[in-house]
Structures are given as structure tokens and as C-alpha cells.
Amino acid sequence: MTQYQIVDDTDILPRDGTIKLHGEAGFAGMRKAGRLAAEILDAMAEMVRPGITTGALDDAVRSMTLDAGAVPATAGYRGYRHSCCISINHVVCHGIPSEKTLKDGDIVNIDVTPLLNGWHGDSSRMYLVGDVPLKARRLVDVTYECLMIGIEQARPGARLGDIASAIQTHAENHRYGVVREFCGHGLGRLFHDAPEVVHAGRAGTGPELKPGMFFTIEPMINLGKAGVKLLDDGWTAVTRDRSLSAQFEHSIGITEDGCEIFTLSPKERHAPPYEV
Ligand code: MF3
Ligand code: CO
Ligand code: CO
User: Fold this and answer.
1) In ligand 1, which atom is closest to the CA atom of 85?
2) pTM for this structure?
3) Which residues line ligand 1 (CB under 6 A)?
4) Is the pLDDT of residue 40 over 90?
């Protein structure tokens, strides 16, 4: 049984498995945190180029986050030490920033989570490094479509399985694999909360969406098979078959008649190629 809880947005409630239903104060907080996440990702479009290290991108994310009066929620999260995750090519998610440089032809995901005034804005986008082969660009385009098709399902009365099914159908129509091991999640005052938002499943199943629910949708789509494995660093997830993987993530809130995307790009840099 799915349990819902109407919350007072001034409280920070524990992760107790209930789905929190927020009010106007929560929407206002998420709007600001989400906008900051989107502004940071907009700025990344001006920095991503061959030769830059992922560590330098992480430094820029940290500075922008702190300058805005926020903190990167990933720093100190379960022992993670960086301000974002940067996942290149066959890295599915949770790539760790380092001295590694971006190369011409790479596709790369940057995932940021500023915590601003007690609210989390969680978003990621793909970036193209120099000249990227058509097959890889196609994967990036379809992954963005998967996210937006999922978001189109998000309205009161729909179920989480409707989102999952729409994403899975679109990806598999292109013969791509949908990663099962990582999911979207409730968020708000907490970074990762109930419900678990899967990206493959059956329409009409799962918890019903209600106004005031906040969660992410963040499909990871592989050019090859869906399988992933974890590297020895305990964080980096890669495709088992070493095929390319792409991901986009938005944080949304369910409204009376649909949903609000908290992390929309102010500069309309929704998906590459980005005009900079
Ligand atoms: N931002 C990721 C997400 O979308 C979580 C990263 S957790 C980290 O949920 F510790 F790996 F940074
Ligand atoms: Co997330
Ligand atoms: Co994220």
C-alpha cells in the first residue's frame, strides 16, 4: 500500500517510505533550487570542450553553487566527495570528476544537485564534445525524448508505471536498453526519498500521482544491452557491454492539472547542440 502524507513545508521529515505531498511553499523552494541547477547546467555548455578535465568542470560547479548561497548535495553524500557526477561515453552514471580530459567525439553527462534554502534541485544533461558520430548523437536525442515523453505522462491520476512504460517503449522502439539498476526518486527537503521512479514497467501499475508530489525522472539509455556493472571505486556504473550510455534528468512537481518542471533551462539549452 502506497502511503501519502500532506506535509508542512517548514518541517524536514525523515525518509519513512511515505510519499510527501507539498504545498505552495514547497513549490516556491523547488522552483529556486531547480532554477539554480538549470543555470549551472547552462554554464557547463560554455565549458565543455576537448581537453578540459572533469575536475575543472566540478570546480566550476562547486563555485557556482556556493556563490549562489547553495551547497552541492553530493559532497559528503554517503562518502562521495565531489560537487557533481560526470559520466563519459560508456559510463552510465555517478562518474567521479578527476584529472581525466574530455576528448573529441565524447558524449558526457553532467549531473548537479544544489541544495538551496533547504530544497534540492536535481538535474542532468548530455553534452557533445567536438564532433560526435551520428550514432551517438541519435542516442542522446532519443534519451532526451524519453525524458520528455515520461514527463508528458505526469499528471494527477496517472501512475508511475505510465511514465515507465512510455519511456521503455520509446527506447526499445529504437533497440536501445533501459537501465534498471538506477531510478528516479522523490526529493524535496531530502535528496533521495520515496517513491522510486522506475524507467521501465507496465502502464497502469505503481503509485498514483497526486498534486504536491515532487520527484525526478532520469532515464539512463544504452546503445547496447541494458546491463550495467559497478567499478571498484564503488561509484562508477558502466555498461556491461561497454556500449555508450546517455541520461537526462529533471526535477518535477505534480500540479492540479499536470506538472511543473523545476529544472527547465532558462537559456533554452534543453538538449544539444547548445547555442553558446
Ligand atoms: N544526482 C544523482 C541523482 O540523480 C545522485 C548522485 S549521488 C552521488 O540522483 F553521490 F553519486 F553524487
Ligand atoms: Co536524481
Ligand atoms: Co541527479
Assistant:
1) 12
2) 0.99
3) 74, 77-78, 80, 85, 94, 111, 113, 122, 216, 218, 235, 249
4) yes
